[in-house]
Amino acid sequence: MTTLTTSTDTTSTDTTSTDTTWTDWATLRDNVSGRLVTREDPEYADARLGWIVNVDQRPAAILEVAHVGDVVEAVGFARDRGLAVSAQPGGHAARTTVDDTLLLRTRALGGIEIDRARGTATVGAGVKWGELCAALDGTGLMALVGSNPDVTVVGLALGGGVSWFTRAHGFTANSVVAFDVVTACGELEHVTRASDPDLFWALRGGGGDFAIVVRVELALFPAPEMHGGQLFWPVEHAPAVLRAFRDLALVAPRELTLWAHVMHFPPMPELPEPIRGQSFVTVAATYLGSKQLFDALLWSLRDAAPVVMDSMRPIQPSEVGDVAQEPVDPMPSMEHSMLLTGFDDAAIDALLAVVGTPGATPLMMTQVRGLGGAFADDNPAGGAVRPVSEPFQLMSVGVPAVPELAAVIPHAFAALDAALGGVASGYRMPNFAGAAQSDAGGYDADRLARLRALKIDRDPDGVIRSNKPVLGR
Ligand SMILES: Cc1cc2nc3c(=O)[nH]c(=O)nc-3n(C[C@H](O)[C@H](O)[C@H](O)COP(=O)(O)OP(=O)(O)OC[C@H]3O[C@@H](n4cnc5c(N)ncnc54)[C@H](O)[C@@H]3O)c2cc1C
């Protein structure tokens, strides 16, 4: 078995063997309860793909684990044969870095326990945010959920977690109280700050490279009243709306979160009539507080140009996943992100020159998230996630529905890099690194060095492999 060393971000270090035999797989199949699909099985063609269906990932085999015992068995099996294991519940961050691994589908690791007295939720590694948020309805409590209800709680938290409520309460990763994991040695461990400070630190933002998580306990936050929704304008108003968004985002209280979008909807029959084939600039918002204050805070946005759709309303936890109206079904997607040190008028105009004209860009959605607030707080008790002082994040998505689009979308990403190079910090949030972008950009040098040293210490044989390996790909 090859021993891991540090490398540059683009140099392969892991040469784990893939010559697992038919007899080996038969042994594993006999020892687990979940379904095992190998390259020889007809189901492999579908089972190998993730939520991002255009990622051509080719694991050695896929195990749909039925319970924690299957995870322990799989890690031991892989370790004994020089294979790597990779957890991928659904594949929202599918990557070819999981090629030749034993891929663990962890969706069956369910269970949601809300402890109102302690103010925590404990969920299995297969639980999606939409499922946890639905369980929080009526409790007056909220977790640090992101934009999409289909993403898993564990997957988002391991990568730091940019929540609707990070401005108020910090990163999702730093809300984690405890993990239950299977280590690279195949041991089941309960990991807390007290039990294993280094591993606890790494799991909170360092990604899925350090252990297979089977369960997580998260802190909850009081949210007796929440509002949210989205304002739509025709895309022609983007220059005025993005300026109003920028001005408000920079002074907003921590309870208010604003994300602006430039959207070009394709003329697909499955889209509702008001948006089908249309282009919009939108601002999605959430607010932890009353309707009166929310309306007062939004006046400058509603005043920027005539609003054509307005879905701002009181929301329950189960509705937070609807605010940004993101897709939940598997789809082709290519993503690109950057953190911005500012979003001045020149940057807004440069952005719109690339993505603002209908029919002139292959990018379907470009989002600018207002950050600030607790994003920038240097939390000494926090994990590997880097405090983010940049006030905005840009994320752009192209949908390569046909091969021709897959060829041109990277050129549009390069045009964005060129247009916004003057305000890009060079960092990005780990969860938002596009497949063609460097994952190392998620961390500062000290954090990356600590993550890499811990990986070599705890998993020298590379038994656990994240989709974004800290030692590089
Ligand atoms: C539409 C969309 C919206 C998004 N919105 C947000 C957002 O608002 N905020 C945000 O922070 N991120 C967001 N993301 C990014 C998302 O959080 C990451 O892609 C995350 O890794 C997805 O986790 P998953 O488990 O759903 O996906 P998967 O692709 O199944 O898993 C991603 C990776 O997480 C790790 N992992 C998952 N489960 C385990 C486990 N049990 N043990 C060890 N490692 C594990 C593995 O490395 C795995 O490869 C979004 C992504 C999409 C596609």
Description:
It comes from Nocardioides bigeumensis. Pfam families: FAD_binding_4. Residues 55-223 form the FAD-binding PCMH-type domain. With 473 residues, this protein is of the alpha+beta class. The chain has helices at 22-31, 44-47, 68-81, 129-136, 153-158, 166-169, 197-203, 238-251, 291-302, 345-355, 403-420, 445-458, and strands at 35-38, 61-64, 85-87, 102-105, 112-115, 120-124, 141-142, 176-182, 188-191, 212-219, 221-222, 227-234, 256-264, 279-287, 309-310, 313-314, 334-340, 363-370, 392-398. Among the domains are: 112-222, Uridine Diphospho-n-acetylenolpyruvylglucosamine Reductase, domain 3, CATH 3.30.465; 227-440, Vanillyl-alcohol Oxidase, Chain A, domain 3 (3-Layer(aba) Sandwich), CATH 3.40.462. 26% of the residues lie in helices and 21% in strands. The structure holds flavin-adenine dinucleotide (FAD).
List the helices and strands and how they pair.
Elements lengths: L21 H10 L3 E4 L5 H4 L13 E4 L3 H14 L3 E3 L14 E4 L6 E4 L4 E5 L4 H8 L4 E2 L10 H6 L7 H4 L6 E7 L5 E4 L5 H7 L8 E8 L1 E2 L4 E8 L3 H14 L4 E9 L14 E9 L3 H12 L6 E2 L2 E2 L19 E7 L4 H11 L7 E8 L21 E7 L4 H18 L24 H14 L15
Parallel strand pairs: 2-4, 3-4
Antiparallel strand pairs: 1-2, 5-6, 6-10, 7-11, 8-9, 8-10, 12-14, 12-15, 12-16, 13-14, 13-18, 17-19, 18-19
Helix pairs in contact: 8-9, 8-10, 10-11
The site of flavin-adenine dinucleotide has 31 residues, from helix 5 and strand 10.
End-to-end separation in angstroms reads: 17 Å
Which CATH architecture of the domain at 227-440 is right? 3-Layer(aba) Sandwich
CATH topology of the domain at 227-440: Vanillyl-alcohol Oxidase, Chain A, domain 3
Record field, number of beta strands:
19
Global structural class: alpha+beta
Rg is 22 Å
Quick one: CATH class of the domain at 227-440?
Answer: Alpha Beta
Identify the overall geometry.
globular
Ligand types: flavin-adenine dinucleotide
Low-confidence blocks of residues: 5-17
Question: Which bin fits the share of residues in helices?
Answer: 25-40%
Q: Could you report the average pLDDT, rounded to the nearest whole number?
A: 95
Strand share of the residues?
A: 15-25%
Number of helices: 12
Question: What does the largest sheet look like?
Answer: 8 strands, antiparallel
Keywords: FAD, Flavoprotein, Oxidoreductase
Protein name: FAD-binding oxidoreductase
Domain FAD-binding PCMH-type: 55-223
Cofactor: FAD
